[in-house]
Structures are given as structure tokens and as C-alpha cells.
Design a protein that fits this description.
This protein has about 300 residues and is an alpha/beta fold. It has 2 domains: about 5-160, NAD(P)-binding Rossmann-like Domain (Rossmann fold, 3-Layer(aba) Sandwich); about 165-290, N-(1-d-carboxylethyl)-l-norvaline Dehydrogenase, domain 2, CATH 1.10.1040.10. Helix content is about 50%, strand content about 15%. The protein contains 13 helices and 9 strands. It has helices spanning about 15-20, 35-40, 50-55, 70-80, 95-110, 120-125, 140-150, 165-190, 195-205, 210-215, 240-255, 260-275, 285-290, and strands at about 5, 25-30, 45, 60-65, 85-90, 110-115, 120, 130-135, 150-160. Strands 1, 2, 3, 4, 5, 6, 7, 8 and 9 form a 9-stranded mixed sheet that branches. The protein binds nicotinamide-adenine-dinucleotide. Nicotinamide-adenine-dinucleotide binds next to helix 4, strand 7, helix 6 and helix 11.
């Protein structure tokens, strides 16, 4: 049994912590929101009134927080209280620069660290089937791996500190772009009078096939069950897609890489969120695209 401190018990963090607890580990929980702590206590976890208290005796610390600024402020609070040799696993999706800074802080405090963002959403967190993209030393990865295997179905060591976040934002930038492409193809097919099922049968087995079409088709009633079949209830919220696209843009500008499609996808998701997309799945952008009148350009 490992003593694990879990900081950030939101939509993702709570089910991940529950899986660690159900696997027989002692989970020491902290969140700034009392309701989150109550849910953790109801699941049998020991709860603490501060993050340093929660991490004090832990061999592993997992953070699942909203953004890089919060992760760094939590790291600054917990690192002085953490046990020497403990591993700190940040599974939040944050910017690469903050992730590297977090590794630097952990290293200075004598701790092993891993940036280990996830894909698979709330469903994957509950089922323990998340994909972890990990960045950090081999020693940190080996120590964290048994815990990641409880929370996830696929664990990839991507390289040094920050490379988990790099992998995550590159993947999600491509996902945002490909979803917009899929939506445009089905919107145009509809306006041309093509039956959506026929469009799906062709595209999903031809060179246009991709995850956004084959697995997560943005049109109701065709392909496997997806948020389109549930009035675009998330799934993966458009807000989170925009967050990840903006992280990719931030990283691209830091390293001077042109990503024009990623930039345009960020702009379109921003417009979608301002025009009915708030609280919708990211595939719901098809509705926004269908309602957008084509200019003459
Ligand atoms: P959430 O907002 O539901 O949870 C975040 C939790 O962190 C909240 O309970 C909040 O109270 C807590 N928190 C905030 N500041 C804190 C602090 N200083 N100390 C302790 N706790 C604090 O968000 P979520 O959906 O669970 O996402 C968490 C992370 O996972 C984000 O970085 C997100 O981008 C990423 N992610 C989310 C999904 C998803 O589908 N929800 C999928 C993949 C990755």
C-alpha cells in the first residue's frame, strides 16, 4: 500500500483518486472546495484542511488542477512539506513552460517529478482507462508507473520533463483541426443533399477517415454512439478544446513554429463558444458552422 496525496478532486481528479483508493492505496485528499472534500470523504478517503498537510507523509503526490499558474502555486506550497524521494505526478493539462518550471521546482526540493497529462475524459477517469502521456526522468517514470497503470489503460513515456504536455497539446491541436474538417465535410454533404449515412459510409472507409469521423462522428444517428446523439452534451467540452488549442498556440509562439490551421481552429472554437457553444461538446461546432453564412471570399 502506498500513501498517495491527491490534490484537485474535480470532474477528473475525484474518479482517479477513487480508483487509487479501490486498488488498496491510502489516499490523502485535498481540494480548496469543501464540497469536493465531502465527496472524497464519502468515498472513504482521509481529507485534509491544507495541501501541505495532505502531502506530508505521502510517497506519491498527484495533482489534477485547472492550469499552470495554479499548479505552480500548489507546487510552491507542497514541495517544502513533501517527503524526500517522493514522486510528484502532475496530471493537469498545462502549458509546457509551466510544466518545465514545475519539474525544476521539484528537482530543487529533492523530489522525482512527472508531467503526466491524460486523454480519455471523465468516462476514462471513472473506468481507469485513461491514456497517460508522461514526461520526466526514467526513475520518476518507473516509480509512478504502477499508479498510472491503476488510473489508465495506456501509459506512454514521451521523454524528458514537459514532453507529456507537448504530446498532449500536439494531439489535441490535431483533434481540433480534424473535428472542424469533419464538421465541414458533413455540413457540405448535407447542403449538397447527400444522406449523412452515405457520407459516413464513404468517408469512414476512405482517405478522409479519421477518429473525428469514425469514432466520434459529429452528426446524429450515424457511426458509433457519440455526443451528437445526445444533443452535443459533453463528452469533451468545447471550452476544454479551446483551452488546449490556446496552449498549443502559446507553445508554437514560444518555439517560433507556424501552425496556421491550429490558429484558425482556435479562432473558430472561440467564435463557437461565443455563439451558443458554451457547455456543448466540441463536436457541436458543426451546428455553428452550418449556421455560418459563406462569404464571397
Ligand atoms: P475541475 O475544474 O472539475 O477540477 C479542478 C479541481 O481543482 C476543482 O475541484 C478545484 O476546486 C480544484 N482546485 C483549484 N485550485 C486548487 C488549489 N489551489 N488547491 C487544490 N485544489 C484546487 O477540472 P477537471 O475537468 O477535473 O480537469 C482537471 C485538469 O484535467 C485540467 O487541467 C483539464 O484541462 C484536464 N483534463 C480534463 C478533461 C475533462 O474531460 N474534464 C480531460 C482531459 C484533461
Amino acid at each position: 500500500m502506498t500513501k498517495i496525496a491527491f490534490i484537485g478532486l474535480g470532474n477528473m481528479g475525484l474518479p482517479m483518486a477513487i480508483n487509487l483508493k479501490n486498488a488498496g492505496h491510502e489516499v490523502r485528499a485535498f481540494d480548496t472546495v469543501p464540497a469536493a472534500l465531502e465527496k472524497a470523504a464519502a468515498e472513504g478517503m482521509e481529507t485534509f484542511s491544507s495541501a501541505p498537510e495532505a502531502v506530508k507523509e505521502a510517497d506519491a503526490i498527484v495533482t489534477m488542477l485547472p492550469n499552470g499558474e495554479i499548479v505552480l502555486s500548489v507546487f510552491n506550497l507542497i514541495l517544502p512539506a513533501a517527503k524526500q524521494g517522493a514522486v510528484v505526478i502532475d496530471s493537469s493539462t498545462i502549458d509546457v513552460t509551466s510544466a518545465r518550471k514545475a519539474h525544476e521546482l521539484a528537482g530543487k526540493a529533492g523530489l522525482l517529478s512527472l508531467d503526466a497529462p491524460v486523454s480519455g475524459g471523465v468516462g476514462g477517469a471513472a473506468a481507469g482507462t485513461l491514456t497517460f502521456m508522461a514526461g520526466g526522468s526514467a526513475a520518476a517514470f518507473e516509480k509512478a508507473k504502477p499508479l498510472l497503470e491503476i488510473m489508465g489503460g495506456r501509459i506512454v513515456h514521451c521523454g524528458d520533463g514537459g514532453s507529456g504536455q507537448s504530446a498532449k497539446i500536439c494531439n489535441n491541436m490535431l483533434l481540433g483541426i480534424s473535428m472542424i474538417g469533419a464538421c465541414e465535410a458533413f455540413a457540405l454533404a448535407g447542403k449538397l443533399g447527400l444522406d449523412p449515412q452515405a457520407a459516413f459510409d464513404v468517408i469512414s472507409t476512405s482517405s478522409g477517415s479519421c477518429w473525428s469521423v469514425n469514432t466520434y462522428c459529429p452528426v446524429p444517428g450515424v457511426g458509433p454512439q457519440s455526443p451528437a446523439d445526445n444533443d452535443y452534451k459533453p463528452g469533451f467540452a468545447a471550452e476544454l478544446m479551446l483551452k488546449d488549442l490556446m496552449l498549443a498556440q502559446h507553445a508554437a509562439s514560444e518555439v517560433g513554429q507556424a501552425t496556421p490551421m491550429g490558429q484558425y481552429a482556435s479562432m473558430l472554437y472561440n467564435h463557437f463558444l461565443q455563439h451558443g457553444g458554451a457547455g456543448k461538446d466540441f463536436s457541436g461546432i458543426i451546428e455553428y458552422l452550418k449556421s455560418t453564412v459563406r462569404g464571397n471570399g
